[in-house]
Automatic annotation (TrEMBL):
<keyword id="KW-0675">Receptor</keyword>
<dbReference type="Pfam" id="PF00001">
    <property type="entry name" value="7tm_1"/>
</dbReference>
<keyword id="KW-0472">Membrane</keyword>
<keyword id="KW-1133">Transmembrane helix</keyword>
<protein>
    <submittedName>
        <fullName>G-protein coupled receptor moody</fullName>
    </submittedName>
</protein>
<keyword id="KW-0812">Transmembrane</keyword>
<keyword id="KW-1003">Cell membrane</keyword>
<feature type="transmembrane region" description="Helical">
    <location>
        <begin position="101"/>
        <end position="119"/>
    </location>
</feature>
<feature type="transmembrane region" description="Helical">
    <location>
        <begin position="61"/>
        <end position="81"/>
    </location>
</feature>
<dbReference type="InterPro" id="IPR000276">
    <property type="entry name" value="GPCR_Rhodpsn"/>
</dbReference>
<feature type="transmembrane region" description="Helical">
    <location>
        <begin position="281"/>
        <end position="303"/>
    </location>
</feature>
<feature type="transmembrane region" description="Helical">
    <location>
        <begin position="139"/>
        <end position="163"/>
    </location>
</feature>
<feature type="transmembrane region" description="Helical">
    <location>
        <begin position="25"/>
        <end position="49"/>
    </location>
</feature>
<comment type="similarity">
    <text>Belongs to the G-protein coupled receptor 1 family.</text>
</comment>
<feature type="domain" description="G-protein coupled receptors family 1 profile">
    <location>
        <begin position="40"/>
        <end position="300"/>
    </location>
</feature>
<keyword id="KW-0297">G-protein coupled receptor</keyword>
<keyword id="KW-0807">Transducer</keyword>
Length: 373
C-alpha cells in the first residue's frame, strides 16, 4: 500500500487532527442542536398531550416522531460531540454497534412516521368517507407499532452480523455499516426500503392532495359565480375546516422537505466520495443530518397558530406553577402583616386604638388610687 493510498483511507482522521478548531466548532454546533432538540421535542410532546384542541390522529404520529427525535438527541448526539472532540469511543465494539444501530433506526422510523402522517392527510382530504373507519385507536396503535417494528427489524440482521455489520470505518472516522465476512452490506437495501420507497409514497400522496384541493377550489369558485350569493354559515364552516386541514397538511409537507434537505447531503457525499477525499464536506453533511432532530418544533411554531398557543400555554402553566408554589409563603407573610384579613392601614388603626384604651384604663386606675388616699 502506497503512502498516498494510506492517507486517502484514513483521510478524515488525519484531517481532523490537523483541523481541531473546525472539529471543536462542529462539536459546539452539535451540542447546541442537542440542547434545542431536547427542549423543543420535549415541549412538543408535553404540549400535544396536555392540549385537547390539537390532539387528533396526526398528533399521535407527531408525538411518536418527537419521541424518536428526542431519543436521538439524548442517546446519539452526545457520542457525536465526543467524536468531534477526539474521544475515541469508536474503538469500543459494543458502543460501535449500538450507536450506529440507533442512528439508522431513527432515520428509518422518522421517515416512516412522516409517511404515516402524510397518508393520514391524504385520506382526510381525498377519501374523507373512509377516514373514521380507518383511523380508530386500535388501528393507530397498530400503525405506530408497525413503523417501530419495521425500522428495528431492518437493522437487526446488521446488528447480528448476518447482513453487513456495524464496525469502525477508518475512512469515515466513525462507526457505520460495513461489509461482513462474506462481503455483503445492507446499505443499498436499507436506502431503498427505508428512504426511497417512503419518499415515493409521500410524493404520490401530496400529488393526490394538490389535485383534489385544486379541483375543490375551482368547483367552489364556479358555484359562487353561478349563485352570485354570499356563502352561508355551513359553507363558511366547511371552508374554515378545510383551511385548517390544509394548514396542517402544509406543515407536514414542510417537515418532509426539511427531512430530505437535511439527509440528502450525507447521502450524496457518501455516494460520490466513498474514499473521503473531501472531509470538510462529510463534516458539514453530518451536522446537517443532526439539525433534522431539532428542526420540527421550529416548523410547528412558525407554521401553526394552534401549536404556538399550545407551547405558550405550557410555558405559562410552568410559570404559574412556580408562582403557585410561592403563594403559601406570601400568604403567611401577609397574615403576619395583616392579621384577621385586615389591611396594613386597618391593622395600624387597631393597634393605636388598643394602646389608647390601655392608657385610658391606667389613668382611671391612678385617679381611683388618688381618691382613696
Amino acid at each position: 500500500m502506497t503512502t498516498s493510498n494510506k492517507n486517502e483511507i484514513i483521510g478524515f482522521e488525519l484531517w481532523a487532527e490537523k483541523n481541531q478548531n473546525i472539529m471543536n466548532a462542529a462539536a459546539f454546533l452539535t451540542l447546541l442542536i442537542m440542547c434545542i432538540g431536547i427542549i423543543g421535542n420535549g415541549l412538543t410532546i408535553i404540549a400535544l398531550v396536555k392540549s385537547p384542541r390539537i390532539r387528533n390522529v396526526a398528533s399521535a404520529f407527531i408525538i411518536s416522531l418527537g419521541a424518536a427525535d428526542l431519543l436521538f438527541c439524548v442517546v446519539v448526539l452526545p457520542f457525536s460531540v465526543s467524536r468531534f472532540l477526539n474521544f475515541n469511543w469508536a474503538q469500543n465494539p459494543i458502543l460501535c454497534s449500538i450507536v450506529p444501530f440507533l442512528q439508522y433506526v431513527n432515520v428509518g422510523v422518522s421517515l416512516l412516521f412522516i409517511s404515516m402522517i402524510t397518508i393520514n392527510r391524504y385520506i382526510m382530504i381525498v377519501h374523507t368517507s373512509l377516514y373514521s373507519r380507518i383511523y380508530r385507536p386500535i388501528w393507530i396503535a397498530s400503525m405506530i407499532a408497525f413503523c417501530l417494528t419495521l425500522a428495528l427489524g431492518m437493522q437487526i440482521p446488521t446488528l447480528l452480523g448476518i447482513w453487513g455489520e456495524y464496525k469502525h470505518d477508518p475512512k469515515l472516522g466513525t462507526c457505520s455499516i460495513t461489509v461482513d465476512r462474506w462481503g455483503r452490506s445492507s446499505k443499498t437495501a436499507l436506502f431503498i426500503i427505508g428512504f426511497i420507497i417512503p419518499c415515493i409514497v409521500i410524493v404520490c400522496c401530496y400529488t393526490g392532495i394538490f389535485w383534489v384541493i385544486r379541483k375543490s377550489e375551482n368547483r367552489m369558485q364556479k358555484h359562487q359565480i353561478s349563485t352570485r350569493s354570499d356563502p352561508n354559515t355551513k359553507s363558511m364552516q366547511a371552508i374554515k375546516r378545510k383551511r385548517n386541514e390544509w394548514r396542517l397538511t402544509k406543515m407536514v409537507l414542510a417537515i418532509f422537505l426539511s427531512f430530505v434537505i437535511c439527509y440528502l447531503p450525507i447521502t450524496i457525499i457518501k455516494t460520490t466520495d466513498p474514499d473521503v477525499l473531501h472531509p470538510v464536506l462529510h463534516l458539514i453533511a453530518y451536522v446537517m443530518l443532526y439539525i433534522s432532530a431539532c428542526f420540527n418544533p421550529i416548523i410547528y411554531v412558525i407554521m401553526n397558530k394552534q401549536y404556538r398557543k399550545a407551547y405558550k400555554s405550557i410555558l405559562q402553566f410552568g410559570c404559574c406553577k412556580t408562582a403557585t408554589k410561592r403563594m403559601p409563603v406570601l400568604r403567611t407573610i401577609s397574615k403576619r402583616l395583616h392579621p384577621h384579613g385586615r389591611t396594613q392601614e386597618e391593622g395600624c388603626k387597631t393597634i393605636v386604638s388598643q394602646v389608647s384604651i390601655a392608657l385610658e384604663t391606667m389613668d382611671n386606675n391612678n385617679r381611683n388610687m388618688s381618691s382613696l388616699i
